[in-house]
Design brief:
Radius of gyration: 21 Å
Shape: globular
Number of strands: 6
Keywords: ATP-binding, Chaperone, Coiled coil, Cytoplasm, Nucleotide-binding, Proteasome
Low-confidence stretches: none
Main location: cytoplasm
Strand order of the largest sheet: 1-3-4-5-2-6
Protein name: Proteasome-activating nucleotidase
Strand content: 5-15%
Organism: Ignicoccus pacificus DSM 13166
Bound molecules: adenosine-5'-triphosphate
Structural class: alpha/beta
Order of helices and strands: EHHEHEHHEHHEEHHHH
Family: Belongs to the AAA ATPase family.
Mean pLDDT: 90
Length: about 270
C-alpha cells in the first residue's frame, strides 16, 4: 500500500559521466560506497571496519541525488530513494515502518544504495517534543538510527543521505558508525557549468554560433538544475521559431527567462 513511499530503480542508467564538475566530491563518495559494495572481502581479510554512510549537503539542484543515482548505476546496484519530508507529511504515522521496509528491501535487493533525501525533515535538532507530529518525527528518526546501527556495511547495502541544512541536523546522526563522511556539494563554478552544459546538450543539434564557454560565463550563480532548465528552454525557443537547430539567441533568451525567476537574482543578458 505504501509502495509509493519509496522510489526503487534497479540498476539506474545514470553514470559518472552524467555528473558535471564535482570530481573531488565524487571521489570521496566512491571511496566510501563503492569499495565495500564491490570488495567486501578486502575489508574482511584486513579486518578493516568500513565506513557506514555518506551525508551530502549543499544548496538544492546541484547534484546530490544525481551523484547517488550515478554511484548506483556504476556499481549496478538497486537505487532506493525516500524523501524525509514525505515520511513525515505524506505518509503520516507510517514513517518508522517505511524506514524499516526500506532497509529490508535494500537487503533483499542487494547490492543496493539507500538514498535518504531531505534527511533534515526527520533528523533535525529538536527543541521540544510536545505535539504528536514531533513524536512521529522522533519515532521515524529512532527507527533510522536503529537501522544504521544495526546494518552490516559488508552486506551489500550502502546509505547516502542528503540535506540543504547541515546546521540543523541532530548530532546523533553524525556520530561515528552512522554518517561517517560528510561531503559538501557546492554550486558549480564556471568549469562545472560548462561540463553540465556539455552533458545536457549532448543530444542537441546546436547552431555553429552556440558558444558553451560563453554561456557558462553568463550563468554565474546558476545551479545544475538551472542549467538543465536553460537547455530545455533554449530547445523550446528553437522549436517555437520553427528552426532545426538551437541558436545562441535561443540560449540567451532562455538564460534570461530561467535565471530572472530566481529570487533575488539580478541576471540580465546584455
Ligand atoms: P535537491 O536538494 O533539490 O534534491 P540535488 O542537489 O539533489 O537537489 P539533483 O536532483 O541532483 O539536485 O539535480 C537536479 C537535476 O539538475 C539533475 O537531475 C540534473 O539533471 C541537473 N544537475 C544538477 N547538478 C548537476 C551536475 N553537477 N551535473 C549534471 N547535471 C546536474
Amino acid at each position: 500500500p505504501y509502495i509509493k513511499a519509496m522510489e526503487v530503480v534497479e540498476r539506474p542508467k545514470t553514470r559518472y559521466s552524467d555528473v558535471g564538475g564535482l570530481k573531488d566530491q565524487l571521489r570521496e563518495v566512491r571511496e566510501v560506497v563503492e569499495l565495500p559494495l564491490k570488495h567486501p572481502e578486502l575489508f574482511k581479510e584486513l579486518g578493516v571496519e568500513p565506513l557506514k554512510g555518506v551525508l551530502l549537503y549543499g544548496p538544492p539542484g546541484c547534484g546530490k541525488t544525481l551523484i547517488a543515482r550515478a554511484v548506483a548505476g556504476e556499481v549496478g546496484a538497486t537505487f532506493i530513494r525516500v524523501v524525509g519530508s514525505e515520511l513525515i507529511n505524506k505518509f503520516i504515522g507510517e514513517g518508522a515502518r517505511i524506514v524499516r521496509d526500506v532497509f529490508n528491501l535494500a537487503r533483499k535487493k542487494a547490492p543496493s544504495i539507500v538514498f535518504i533525501d531531505e534527511i533534515d525533515a526527520i533528523a533535525a535538532k529538536r527543541i521540544e517534543m510536545g505535539t504528536s507530529g514531533e513524536r512521529e518525527v522522533q519515532r521515524t528518526l529512532m527507527q533510522l538510527l536503529a537501522e544504521l546501527d544495526g546494518f552490516d556495511p559488508l552486506s551489500g547495502v550502502a546509505v547516502i543521505a542528503a540535506t540543504n541544512r547541515l546546521d540543523i541536523l541532530d548530532p546523533a546522526i553524525l556520530r561515528p558508525g552512522r554518517f561517517d563522511r560528510i561531503v559538501y556539494i557546492p554550486p558549480p563554478d564556471k568549469k562545472g557549468r560548462l561540463e553540465i552544459l556539455q552533458i545536457h546538450t549532448r543530444k542537441m543539434k546546436l547552431a555553429p554560433d552556440v558558444n558553451l564557454e560563453k554561456i557558462a560565463e553568463m550563468t554565474e550563480g546558476a545551479t545544475g538544475a538551472d542549467i538543465k532548465a536553460i537547455v530545455t528552454e533554449a530547445g523550446y525557443n528553437a522549436i517555437r521559431a520553427g528552426r532545426r537547430m538551437v541558436t545562441m539567441e535561443d540560449f540567451e533568451k532562455a538564460i534570461e527567462k530561467v535565471l530572472s525567476k530566481r529570487i533575488g537574482a539580478t541576471y540580465r543578458v546584455s
